[in-house]
Design goal:
The chain has about 160 residues and is α+β, with helices and mostly antiparallel strands. About 20% of the residues lie in helices and about 30% in strands. Strands 8-9-10-11 form a four-stranded antiparallel beta sheet, with helices on one face. It has a three-stranded antiparallel beta sheet with strand order 3-4-5.
Length: about 160
C-alpha cells in the first residue's frame, strides 16, 4: 500500500505497483475522488487503475467497494453499470427520518418519500407528513416491509 499526495492535505491509497501514478499532479475533488486534468478533460485515478488492471475501458462506471473515493487499491475497485454504482452509495444527506438508504423527507412536498428499488423498476411511495406519529407509523411499516397506511400517491419508474 502506498499513499499519493492530493490537494487539500489528502492522500490517495494505491497498491505498490501503482506508485507510477505519483508522477502526475493529483487533486482532491469536491466529490471525494483523486483526479487530474489532461487536455481539458478530467481524468480520475480510479478509472486509470481499473483500465490498466482489466486491459480495456469497456465499462460504464468504476465502483469503490468500501465507498471511499480515494481508496484506489485494486481490491477496492470493480467495473459497474451506473445503476450498480448508485446501488452502492450511502445514506442520502436529506434522509433525516430513517436509517434506510432510500427514504428521505421531501420538504418541498411536505412528504416522506420511500423509494423501493427492484431489479426492473423503482417504486416511490409518497406520504403526507402531518405529525410525528405519521412518520413513526411509516418508518415501522417500512422496517417490516409492510405498508400499513396507504400512500398519498405513488410513482413507478420502469428501468430500461
Amino acid at each position: 500500500m502506498r499513499k499519493i499526495p492530493l490537494t487539500q492535505g489528502k492522500f490517495a491509497i494505491v497498491d505498490k505497483e501503482d506508485v507510477w501514478l505519483v508522477g502526475y499532479n493529483w487533486c482532491y475533488t469536491t466529490y471525494g475522488y483523486a483526479a487530474r486534468w489532461e487536455c481539458g478533460k478530467i481524468v480520475f485515478m480510479h478509472r486509470m487503475i481499473l483500465e490498466r488492471k482489466l486491459g480495456h475501458s469497456n465499462f460504464e462506471d468504476t465502483d469503490h467497494v468500501n465507498r471511499d473515493g480515494i481508496d484506489n487499491r485494486k481490491a477496492n475497485l470493480r467495473p459497474a453499470t451506473h445503476a450498480q454504482n448508485l446501488g452502492n452509495r450511502g445514506k442520502q444527506k436529506n434522509n433525516t427520518s430513517s436509517s434506510f438508504l432510500l427514504v428521505f423527507l421531501a420538504r418541498y412536498f411536505s412528504s416522506l418519500v420511500i423509494a423501493i428499488d427492484f431489479s426492473a423498476a423503482m417504486l416511490c411511495l409518497i406520504y403526507p407528513v402531518r405529525t410525528d406519529a405519521t412518520i413513526s407509523k411509516i418508518k415501522n411499516a417500512v422496517r417490516y416491509l409492510f405498508i400499513i397506511c396507504p400512500p398519498l400517491s405513488f410513482l413507478l419508474f420502469l428501468k430500461p
